[in-house]
Specification:
24% helix, binds ligand MIG, 39 strands
């Protein structure tokens, strides 16, 4: 076993390199790892974690690391997996798969996020297994007191990240894998989607309904329906005639279009994408050099080989066709890659069918055999084993070995292509499959969840677990994708969605309609109220997203990151932190009008979010509290010595957009930076932004409220006045209105 130990100079990041790992590009390319001669780990790193830097045990072709777990040890991370926020008790197989039923027994979902955060009585550490093929994390599943990591390969990079606390570890990890990309500001608005908006007429009806119901919306999504015969990068002339004027009529209403992009390219001579890809040799092949055929929506397709830089460059520029038509954002789907069946799989199924009977009417018990084969030919691992991709560094490789990079490299292609034809603009991109590092190119949605209350809870788990893995811009389909949603579920989910970085109502073809107006007037009112709150909070959300990416601290976090030494907070599964100062405790079960909330050390101000005004805010001490929650309300608590800012909600009578409101809960002092830029371009990288600093301080009997331009260009700050509403520890409120100082 060839082993090399290296470390970034005194940064507390160690790398154990075994064999010749496939470069995934999850670690920023500028990172250098000098060889280590003398291993000295920090005192905060548990001994057992340090011991992982020894050669692992190797069984057959598998590498295996083991680590003992004490009863009190906590493990977070692993991104998009089933199970709780604390990952103990589960086994997670990182092998991207298109599985649309997210039941508790599923060990794999759409991506691979091989990062975990450990907290033991001895200290904390981060572990990142950088390997593009399968990795299994058995986190106290087979044996409750053991963490076992196994990799069916002899080549892998293992990173150990030290830190004196969990936040410190996450920040270092973020330095290793880089900052999340900066989406356009409209990415944070409300987005409306559904599989089955059949034609431009129907999309315009949706826009009309949004308007008629006074629901603000920044984007409408085009699912498979917009394409001509499911051919990627085409639009249907029949259902979407005169696409450009359709797009601009939406744009005139401030609604942008985002379209789905699937990797499968329909096999059809004369279709330019197919012809070009074939001619240039850009598709995934078989070992004999023939092109692999995978059936997806259009029937048989070829899959682009995103590992091949030339194929990536080609694919990236294809998005220009859509962009030119007025489509401003992209939604990369089916990129695990999903395969309905291959020709080999279909041959097998046909054979099973034939071997049993000549007449389908005669199938008896053999039917089960037929069903088993039928179910196994989709996303079959034998197909991935058979596929060949052309890599830059390792020659031709089996897809199986680099499986988890497919979505990542597709995102990279999208981002690089976009930068080439929309130079200076920010990309809007969400992807279904992902691998660590992909957050530098775009965001994620969590795929085909269901309209189940369990999946409302899963939304929290996914946001916080993906957050520590670097993905700050994430969200689940609001209301649930599969199954029928109820009005109450939609309301509660939209309320949670106010505090989800990505907020999109999306549902599957054939399910009950799920737009806010598809239920009853109560559902409509309550959903709209939540969406208004989202829009009112946009200055805060945008500012905090930007701060998150600067500091490497996730926007949405498990309580343990902020209250690491609070034994209760470490284990909270149904609340989360949003931005610096907010604790969110959503309603997660039907028919509830109250819930228990755990409030960590310090005092908290419960913000009654019925209106983004501040009436009725009350102070709570730490501990377990039972609170009443109206059906149109989401429990939000503001941490002591913090602030949250907002503007008037959409359609408010007082539309004065130059007025910023601030709710502050201050016993000593609080600072909040409000960030603004043009929201669309990369100019912010060159100083095109403004930071308005808000300060509230109590000195003796004085309350001092300040608002001044702290950094950047005064002209980019949209606010002229700031209205402070300041609560003290006793719940006494004071108001101050100040004008923004522009020097
Ligand atoms: O499973 O394009 O996750 O959001 O609506 C069907 C149709 C394929 C899966 C995506 C979903 C999308 C759907 N797609």
């Amino acid at each position: 076993m060839q082993i090399e130990l290296s470390s970034t100079d005194s940064e507390g990041i160690f790398r154990l390199r075994i064999g010749d790992p496939f470069p995934t590009s999850s670690v920023c390319s500028h990172r250098v790892f000098p060889k280590l001669t003398n291993l000295s780990l920090s005192q905060d790193t548990p001994d057992e974690v340090g011991a992982l830097l020894q050669p692992p045990s190797s069984e057959g072709s598998e590498l295996r690391w083991e680590l003992g777990l004490d009863v009190g040890d906590l493990i977070y991370g692993l991104g998009q997996t089933m199970g709780g926020i604390n990952k103990r008790g589960g086994r997670y197989r990182m092998y991207a798969v298109d599985d649309h039923r997210h039941t508790p027994d599923k060990s794999s979902l759409y991506g691979a996020h091989n990062f975990l955060l450990l907290k033991t009585s001895q200290g904390v550490a981060g572990l990142f297994v950088d390997h593009p093929g399968e990795v299994v994390f058995d986190v106290g599943f087979t044996q409750r007191d053991r963490l076992v990591i196994s990799v069916p390969d002899q080549n892998v990079d293992l990173y150990i990240i030290e830190g004196s606390d969990l936040i410190g570890v996450v920040k270092r990890f973020m330095k290793l894998v880089g900052r999340p990309w900066m989406p356009p500001r409209w990415a944070f608005g409300y987005h409306q989607s559904r599989w089955g908006y059949r034609d431009s007429k129907e999309v315009l009806q949706v826009a009309d309904a949004l308007e008629a119901h006074n629901i603000p919306c920044d984007a409408i999504y085009l699912d498979l329906d917009y394409m001509d015969s499911f051919k990627v990068f085409t639009t249907s002339d029949e259902r979407f005639p005169d696409f450009q004027s359709f797009a601009s009529s939406l744009k005139a209403r401030d609604i942008r279009l985002v379209s789905i992009v699937d990797p499968g390219v329909k096999i059809q001579p004369g279709y330019d994408v197919y012809d070009e890809g074939k001619e240039q040799g850009y598709f995934v092949k078989h070992s004999d050099g023939s092109i692999f055929k995978a059936a997806v929506w259009p029937g048989y397709t070829h899959l682009p080989d995103f590992l091949n830089p030339a194929a990536r460059a080609w694919w990236g520029t294809l998005y220009k066709k859509l962009y030119r038509l007025g489509i401003e954002g992209f939604w990369n789907d089916m990129n695990e890659p999903a395969v309905f069946f291959s020709s080999e799989g279909m041959a097998e199924l046909t054979e099973v069918f034939r071997s049993h009977t000549n007449d389908p009417q005669d199938l008896g018990i053999e039917f089960l055999d037929f069903m088993k084969t039928l179910n196994s030919i989709s996303n079959n691992r034998d197909d991935y084993r058979a596929m060949r991709q052309a890599s830059e560094t390792h020659g031709v490789v089996s897809q199986e070995r680099v499986h988890n990079l497919y979505g990542f490299m597709m995102a990279k292609a999208t981002a690089e292509g976009f930068a080439s034809f929309a130079s200076g603009q920010r990309l809007f991109l969400i992807s279904r499959s992902s691998y660590i590092g992909q957050h530098r190119y775009g965001g994620l949605w969590t795929g085909d969840n269901s309209s189940w209350w369990d999946h409302l809870r899963l939304h929290i788990q996914h946001m916080v677990s993906l957050g520590v893995c670097g993905f700050f811009f994430v969200g689940a389909d609001i209301g649930g994708f599969s199954s029928d949603c109820s009005g109450e579920l939609l309301v509660r989910w939209t309320q949670l969605g106010v505090f989800s970085p990505f907020l999109r109502n999306h549902s599957a073809l054939t399910t009950r309609r799920q737009e806010p107006w598809a239920f009853d007037s109560k559902t409509l009112d309550e959903t709209r109220k939540a969406i208004y709150l989202r829009y009112a909070l946009l200055p805060y959300i945008y500012s905090e997203y930007r701060r998150s990416r600067e500091e490497g601290v996730p926007l949405v976090r498990m309580l343990a990151l902020d209250f690491e030494y609070d034994a209760r907070a470490q284990r909270v599964e149904d609340q989360f932190m949003f931005g610096q100062g907010l604790l969110i405790a959503p309603i997660l079960h039907p028919n509830l009008t109250e819930r228990m909330v755990y409030l960590p050390a310090g005092r908290w101000l419960r913000w009654r979010t019925l209106h983004p005004s501040v009436e009725g805010a009350t102070v709570f001490d730490s501990g377990d509290r039972c609170i009443e929650v109206a059906s149109d309300e989401i429990p939000v608590f503001l941490r002591e010595n913090h602030m949250v800012c907002f503007v008037a909600p959409p359609y408010a009578e007082d539309k004065e957009s130059s007025r910023l409101r601030v709710l502050a809960f201050v016993s000593d002092c609080a600072v909040l930076d409000v960030y603004a830029d043009d929201g669309l371009t990369q100019d912010f990288e060159k100083g095109g932004y403004a930071i308005l600093r808000l300060k509230v301080e109590r000195r003796a009997n004085d309350l001092i409220c300040e608002a001044y331009i702290h950094e950047g260009l005064t002209t980019l700050c949209p606010y002229k006045r700031v209205d402070f509403i300041v609560y003290d520890a006793d719940g006494q409120v004071a108001r101050r209105s100040v004008s923004v100082l522009k020097d």
